[in-house]
Amino acid sequence: MTMTITEKILASHAGLESVSPGQLINARIDIALGNDITAPISIERFQKAGAARVFDKKKVVLVPDHFAPNKDIKSAEQCRAMREFAHTYDIEHYFEVGQAGIEHALLPEQGIVLPGDLVIGADSHTCTYGALGAFSTGVGSTDLAAAMITGELWFKVPETIRFNYTGQRQPWVGGKDLILYTIGRIGVDGALYRAMEFTGEVIDSLPMEDRLTMANMAIEAGGKNGIIVPDDITEAYVKDRAKRPYEFFKSDPDAHYAEVIDIDVSQLEPQVAFPHLPSNTRGISDVGDVIIDQAIIGSCTNGRISDLRISAEVLKGNRIAKNVRLIVIPATQQIYRQAMHEGLFDIFLDAGAVISLPTCGPCLGGYMGVLARGERAVATTNRNFVGRMGHAESEVYLANPAVTAASAILGKIAGPAEL
Amino acid sequence: MKCAGNAWKFGANIDTDAIIPARYLNVSDPDELASHCMEDENPRFIKEVAAGDIIVADTNFGCGSSREHAPIAIKAAGISCVIAKSFARIFYRNAFNMGLPILECPEAVDGIEPGSHVTVDLLTGEIVNKNTDQTFKAEPIPPFMKQILDDGGLMGHIAKRS
User: A341 and A293 share a domain?
Assistant: First the structure.
């Protein structure tokens, strides 16, 4: 029986020869992730169940990144609950402030998630790790509690949509634009309950960090997971990071797909998602005059070193507009240090940006960079729902790092070509 | 299991930031979360919702974040059941895992007005709009999900199995 990569990973973790879409399985978990917002509820459920230990202290990962370093007293209590749990159960991968970073940038960087893994996380952007050829999906806090106790979880095997990207990418068009365009095309529930498998010549040559950006936003189309069949680019990324064996799974050439969607990227411009849905996309030349108050470069979607390099390339020698606040957020400590060593911080500071410690912070409007009534931000983040970055009457426009940097300079949403 | 209450109608793609804005996620107390439920989407909701009331929404209800705070806030607000044309998958999982009854029924969503008195039989999936006496039949809860509900949610389910 032929299978997709998603089906093969699920079958192997369920101890089955094969699985097919719709089938309910119990599967073994390689990594179970929680953060300072979701883990406290899991911990409560874990304790209420009277569990004596976690199933494997090497396979549970806890990262304080959303409201940490503690933004207020209530957040401090949540972070403390997670910290105490991590110490009590001797969790190997607990990342204290100072080692932590945005979880979905941190785990691939540290080689904690690897090709062929089955990963669950109590955070919807857990789908990011599909870029490495893992099956990785977001779940809730109760699921995480159950996984921490038993080391397994139930899944319904999803159907897969295959996206086939062909053609030549235009300048300043990256993974963010490919995925924004895709979400715009199929809608915010266009892949509901389904796997999104990204394939084609464009993906074959796409750098790993752009792949991570694409898989990261599969959830914005309702996808259960986003996934890319691992290749030489994957191998180059993981070989020096992995501290345990990993396995490359590949879709069979004649595997069954619920749908195949062909996308020719040759004419694709940088994309901007207008309020208040990630699917509300337009090409940069159709944006019109959108004056901005704030620009954010960072997040689990676009806070990696390549994102900072692209931003610096655009910002170099420029000053941001007088009425704009630009916040740059390196996603992890390692990225922070690297950006500093490469001289990117000087470029950001000279341009008039402020550089933040690694945090999810403004992406979800809870912490630093929150918008006032009527304010507008362009951001490299992943969601632009009503009130996502602050006041219910504020607006968020999603874009790639180059567009966000150029917009900060010009004071309105614009691409680097307009500089 | 039966639910009865007045309908609160919502549109398509009600995301978890609308259900419970992230700025309130520094707590996990159900009552405190409930006090901000739907605050940006419909400020009247939390002031006027009565125990037993039913949320009736269009497609993709609960999209966005994985926060279980969303079904927790809805349940603690007194909502007895959510009927939608479709649910985002993490919300769907979370609702069963923590014991918030949900049903998919596009016809009922179109046939229920805001404030209509609605009764729901969770076992049969029968939904009645008492104002018009129209009856709708929801997709039955899949047997596996029913088992989780019967076990009192996922934690009860795994306790029973082990």
Answer: yes
Residue pair A243/A270 in contact (Cβ under 8 Å)? The answer is: no
Name the residue among A24, A72, A123 with its Cβ closest to that of B66: A123
Query: Do A49 and A79 belong together in one domain?
Result: yes
For the segment B68-105, what is each residue's pLDDT rounded down to a tens digit?
999 999 999 999 999 999 999 999 999 999 999 999 99
Q: What is the CATH number of the domain that holds A359?
A: 3.30.499.10
Q: Using CB atoms, pick whichever of B15, B26, B90 lies closest to residue A74.
A: B26
CA distance A98 to A95: 8
Task: From chain B, pick out residues whose CB is under 8 angstroms from the CB of A364.
Answer: 17, 22, 25, 65
A41 within some domain:
yes
| Contact between chains at A222 and B63 (C-beta distance less than 8 A) | yes
* Structural domain for A355, as ranges: 272-418
A16 burial via Cβ count (<10 Å: 0-12, 13-18, 19+): middle
ipTM (interface predicted TM): 0.96
Same domain, A219 and A290: no
User: Is the pLDDT assigned to residue A329 strictly greater than 80?
Assistant: yes
Check A387 against B18: CB less than 8 A apart: yes
> With contact defined as beta carbons under 8 Å apart, do A18 and A7 qualify?
yes
Residue B131 has a pLDDT of 97
Q: Find the residue in B nearest to A225 (Cα).
A: B89
Q: What are the angstrom distances between the C-alpha of B137 and each of A152, B8, B69, B106?
A: 34, 19, 29, 10
Q: Does A267 fall in a domain?
A: no
In a domain, A314, yes or no: yes
Q: Is the Cβ–Cβ distance between B70 and B28 less than 8 Å? A: no
- Per-residue pLDDT, A366: 82
Q: A358 with A329, same domain?
A: yes
Both A235 and A383 in one domain: the answer is no
